[in-house]
Amino acid sequence: MGNVLIATDWLAACAGCHMSLLDLDERLVELLYHVTFTSSPVTDLKHPPESGVTVGILTGAISNTHNIEVARRMRSRCTYLVAVGDCATFGGIVGARNLVGTQAALRRAYLETESTVDGQIPDSPELGRPLDFVTGVGDVVKVDIFLPGCPPRPDDLHYVFAEVLSGRIPVMLPRENFRYD
Amino acid sequence: MSTITITMNGQKVSAQPGQSILRAAQAAGIDIPTLCHHPALAPIGACRVCLVEVAGQRTLQPACTFPVADRMEIQTESPKVVRARKFVLDLIFSERNHFCMTCEMSGGCELQDLGYRYGLDHWAYPTYTQRFPVDASPPHHLLDHNRCVLCRRCLRACAELVANHTLDLRQRGANTMVTADMDAPLGESTCVNCGTCLNVCPTGALVDKRSAFMARPPDVERVATVCSQCSLGCGVNVVMHRGHVLRLESLWDAPVSGGLLCRTGRFEALADGRPRLLEPVRKSKGEHVPISWEAALAAASQRLGATAPSRLGVFTTTRLTNEAMGLLHAIFVRHLKAAHRGASHSAAPGMTACRCGKLADIADSDLVLLAGSDPAQDQPVASFLIKRALDRGTRLVTVESRPTELTAFAETAFPPQQISKAVALARAAEKPVVIYGADLTPTEATALRKLEAKAVFIPLHPGVNTLTAETFELNGKMDAAACDTLFIAAGEENGTIEAVTRKAGPKAFVIVQASYGSALADRADLVLPMATWLERSGTFTNTEGTVHRAHAALTPSGQSRPDWDILGRLAERLGLDATIAKDAILTCRV
Ligand code: SF4
Ligand code: SF4
Ligand code: SF4
Ligand code: SF4
To answer: Which residue, B406, B389, B405, is CA-closest to B397?
Structure first.
């Protein structure tokens, strides 16, 4: 394990961006000579260490109050924050909710679906409250690198890791690592 | 014209006075990005993506409309310019739904390309704030307002190119929307479904229904060919993905049509639902049995050779290539001397002494006299060209026995008896053009000849390659009932041909060369399966007499073969001197 610490977390996301990370395949082994993954949604340790990491990776959109908390926690514990995937950069597929409105989406999902019997919109105080408007991560915390793609290709993630490990923060992604879809 | 010298990004460049900065840059190989600009349309400077810095100008200027001047100094990619462009793009992206993953255009979208070029990796402003409708009412395309960037290319194309003036913008600001007529659904509007707007739209707003989401734009290939639906010979791009035709698109540098296509040429030419004929068959005891090409051609040549000329008939669709018609001429006119010859369409009467014009002449004329022809119906792109001229002040007079779509645009519509009045108007004009069709009566033709010295004459022949069928004497007298053997080159034609051949006696031996199954093919004693227009190369002589080359986009289905290939083999079987056939083909190319 290398000495650059990386923590990842997800917000309103599918697991696709994390799968793309795992898709680095043998390059992941190579990467592990340089970095240590402290925590991620797919490991036992979920939260970034309070002592901080160099690189924080967030996938997924800001869709509820819990997402805001997670994003702020990551921001406060990392030096460089990378927003990975269309959801984290643009709101992505989650942002499609904005086209119908949050309340309509909740009604459709929990009450009106053809298979629903006695449905109820969840309102436990332990759950994050859905926001009226879905956004990318950049709307709630400062992001250092945006990497769009749904999901970004392993090559694109590899490019970002290589740059950051060499001490560079790309201002603009090269065309071959930049995809909106 | 004297050239002037300007400086672009510190580099000396020569330009033409009056030229826009964009054109001067393009000529010098300097890339200025654009979005609302389209080479076939007049520039309007609406999107502000092409903003450049011009020394001495207080603000940035749109390169597409700003004219160059001597010693002008221009920066096309300075930090100030790039900042402004990013700002413009941020605004455009934020206005509607530009989530590319679910967009048909992704990979071929001009807005997306700009996003990549200027590194738009997140939204600067809230997006998806307003939901717009999708208008899927037209038969072949749809308009998703959520992807529209209000570049106005579609409305300009509809007005400037098609002269149909269906589209416009309604409302103001963020609520602005493309609209048809007085806010009608497209499918109920004056739209003629030519699809030209579809072809100029830079984004995924205007989409072809048939091919939507079938292939990403970078994965398609295009084959340029000639439309074979009427006698104009418009150029068309066949868009393909892995050997499948997706759609037909404008061919902007096509000589006759300059990118225009009509509903038939763009959409309906692909919507043929008839079953294909895929193998040669022979009738045996009332049943069709498959046979080899060798056997089919042997049977055909044997039968043809054994029939007396007076009992032999040949009938052809006008959709065959020049090459195939030349071979029909060599085989049936010269070699077998068939007494009965017919074609699906007859050409408009010849006006040999007249100056035969080109469709391009319509644009320069001050008066169009239209007689015995209904281009809006039969050669729609010609009607677009006429209406385009009318927009620029050309006058239209028609001579007609019944009103057509163009009647409404005519200054005066004369009944046939009053043709002399129309002729008088044309004579008083400066550059009159006479457009006439096959409905012209001999009396009308005589009246029009009075304009011989003055006007340019453009015939609009019905059918497709009708002029060549006429040149090759294929359209003569035809009495199907008097034939023992009938060779019918039906090709992709349908009804017209069946009507003629239904008269054939029950004993007649009928050989059919066709692409699709029909009552005619069922009746045939011998069926020779023919490739479709997408599957064969060859040449066509259009209505103005110019020759156009068609290129096969697909390989022929099943065992079908190109029209000229079948006839070439048949000629060989009949022992025809190959040079006769070759000569025939060469004559039609002159
Ligand atoms: S129109 Fe272009 S920019 Fe908009 S979603 Fe489609 S591909 Fe993306
Ligand atoms: S399809 Fe043709 S007629 Fe209809 S709106 Fe588009 S350009 Fe105009
Ligand atoms: S529909 Fe397409 S061509 Fe028309 S204004 Fe919108 S983006 Fe432009
Ligand atoms: S006008 Fe004629 S040649 Fe042109 S696209 Fe239409 S059918 Fe084809």
So the answer is: B406
